[in-house]
Known about the structure:
Helices cover 77% and strands 0% of the residues. By secondary structure, it is mostly helical.
Amino acid sequence: MQRESWNTRLGFILAASGSAIGLGNLWKFPYESYENGGSAFIFIYLFSIIIVGLPIMMAEIFIGKSTNKNPIGAFKALHPSGWHIIGWLGITSGFVILSYYSVVGGWTLRYFFQTISGAYLSLTDAQISNDFGNFVSNGPSQLLFHSLFFLLIIGIVIFGVRKGIEVAGKIFMPILFILLFIMVVFASQAKGFSRSIDFLFSPDFSKITTTSVMEAMGQSFFSLSLGMGAIITYGSYMKSDEPILKDAATIVALDTLIAILACLMIFPIIFSFELKPGASIGILFSTLPVLFLKMPGGIFIGPIFFLLIIFAALTSAVSLLEVVVSYFIDELKWPRKKATIFMGLAIWALGIPSALCNGGWGWLSGIKIIGNRNFFDSLDYLASNWMLPIGGIFIAIFTGWVVSKDTRNSSFAKDHQLIYRALMFILKFITPLLVFMVLLNTTGIVKLITG
Ligand code: TRP
């Protein structure tokens, strides 16, 4: 059977941007820039996008496109000596990340329903903020929304690369851009807008610490979906005559633009009410819904905001499932339907403890796995702080040092040679070192050295 491929180049770009643009952009990035001095953090983020994000993006597209295989098959095809273990690590990461990502996806669905039905109109501020706590500790609702979100993911992936993922990207991404634009225009009317502009564009470098530099690098990684083969998989559906660098740069630029626009959407609202964004994802679901209702037009803005987040989360989740599914289709010759349903169910099942460990099931909620983290937080910690950076280092080393030069050069033959060589240099010598430092930071070793 012939392997699937994208219908158009734009289809690939939108699907890959759909993978990259997710909760990482719309929530994590604004929060991290807030905590780290606004524009100074953004400045460092842009720097790490160029020396970590773009080179690994280019490497992943190359690995996929030059082999037309899933992450495991791709490594085997390029170098038959055990490097495919990175593919295994990637597929495992996809499995793990998707299981809890879908739980948060379910929250966005539920908040869309709450805001559009006007359920909050008759409640007090305190009742609305407390609603989040009540919701996450309600086991049956957690399972219901986790399952609903999973049905949506499976419903897209089952239709395949062209009719499922590409169509979803072509519909959801433009709508997402429009909704975000509406939100930013709306936020620009809020009285905190000019303060936000100051904050975002006049740097306060005194707020920068080693940790925030490391945080910026880790974030560029997560935000661009790098380190686990999501982009390898999407790249593997490219037709072989397309150049790589322009597409990589476009995806990176779109992802970065959306992250900055997300700041322009969230800061003015938060600044207008003198509220400090908290460290937890809960604020998206407990503070903002209250603020929306205080604003003129907030009844409409609330549902638009959550719809935007649903689309972003859904296209990211789809890419995570596709990595796992592509392995079963390519290597084990399963039909797509079977691979999507079986793997979807398996990952959904792994998500159940994540759905229930925030209070839904008392016994499980009390169990701490890594440090003081519950099941959900432990999976996130393990995947984002360990599995993705390790995957990223090896992808960089593999592409820079292991793959045959001829294969690599011929894949980039259509690209601008000077830029290709410059990025290759960064990928070989700088990227692995920097990502390694992110890892050291995770372990606490760098913090010890710098005090
Ligand atoms: N990039 C997505 C976000 O910003 C999350 C994501 C989707 C991801 N697929 C990934 C992260 C693969 C790492 C690897 O929310």
